[in-house]
Amino acid sequence: MRWNGLDGDRQYAFLKTADMSRFPWATGRIFAGMILWQARYEDDARPKASRVHVTMDDNSVHEVTAPELTARLSAEAGADVGLIRLARGTFDSMPVSLVGRQTLDNLADKSEGAVEALRFRPNIVIDRGLERDWIGGRLVFEDSPLRLRVDRPIERCSMITIDPATADRNAKLMRTVVEDFNNEIGVYCTPEVPGTLVAGAKVWLQPA
Q1: pLDDT class of 61 with cuts at 50, 70, 90
Q2: Which end of the chain is more exposed for a tag (fewer CB within 10 A), N or C?
Q3: Helices (H) and strands (E) in the chain, counts
Q4: Are 202 and 142 in contact, with CB atoms under 8 Å apart?
Q5: What percent of the chain has pLDDT over 90?
Q6: Looking only at Cα atoms, what is the longest distance across the chain?
Q7: In whole angstroms, what separates CA 115 from the centre of its chain?
């Protein structure tokens, strides 16, 4: 992980080319089936330089720059859609997002059903704890100089209502997040010291 987040994270984005609003992005808001698309790097070790392949919801595979992708999104959006690439990533607000497993378990209890972390598109899922309790502190990771400052909660939008496995929508989940969680699931973090992040590594909190 570098100062601007994980290497290669969210470096591609689709947008409505003639849309001059503050939110021109073509996302699952306009076409829920896009959630089922799966992108992968041809060379995982070099994400910033690697070609990217996308498996669409019809199981066809294309390079991320292929016209088939923008044509499908343009048809769904009713407007021309293009692709952009930014080396620093097209983040909503901050470069790293994180959620604690206890938060997801609490949400599942309120929702009367399992809630997948993928709905919230986090970079990091920590197996224990409530991430909102860590705000203002620093997270340090096993066998890595990496240090993350935990900055603020993440306000959620209707994207979390789309099931990442089926693309079905569940409006009730949004109401639960608003009413019982102040519309906040997860936290934004900022890298203070870059380093390698390894799945399964232990993590410690340095309180504010």
Answers
A1: very high
A2: C
A3: 3, 11
A4: yes
A5: 81
A6: 49
A7: 15
Q: Give the predicted TM-score (pTM) of the model.
A: 0.89
Token pair recorded at residue 186 = 């997860």
Calculate mean pLDDT across residues 16-38. Answer: 93
Got the DSSP string for 123-192?
Answer: SEEESSS-GGGGTTSEEEETTS--EEEEEEEEE--GGGGB-TTT--B-HHHHHHHHHHHTTEEEEEEEEE
**For residue 96, what are its two tokens?**
């790293």
Task: Phi first, then psi: give them for residue 150, nearest 5 degrees.
Answer: -90, 115
The reported pLDDT for the residue numbered 184 is: 97
Please state the φ and ψ torsions of residue 76, each to the nearest 5 degrees: -70, -35
Separation of CA 30 from chain center: 17
If phi > 0 it is left, if psi is from -120 to 50 it is alpha, else beta; for residue 147 that is beta
Residue 141 β-bridge partners: 203
The pair of three-digit structure tokens given for residue 3, joined into one six-digit string: 């100062």
96-206: CATH topology: M1 Pyruvate Kinase; Domain 3 (2.40.33)
Instruction: State both tokens at 21.
Output: 């609003």
Domain with CATH 2.40.33.20 in the chain: 96-206
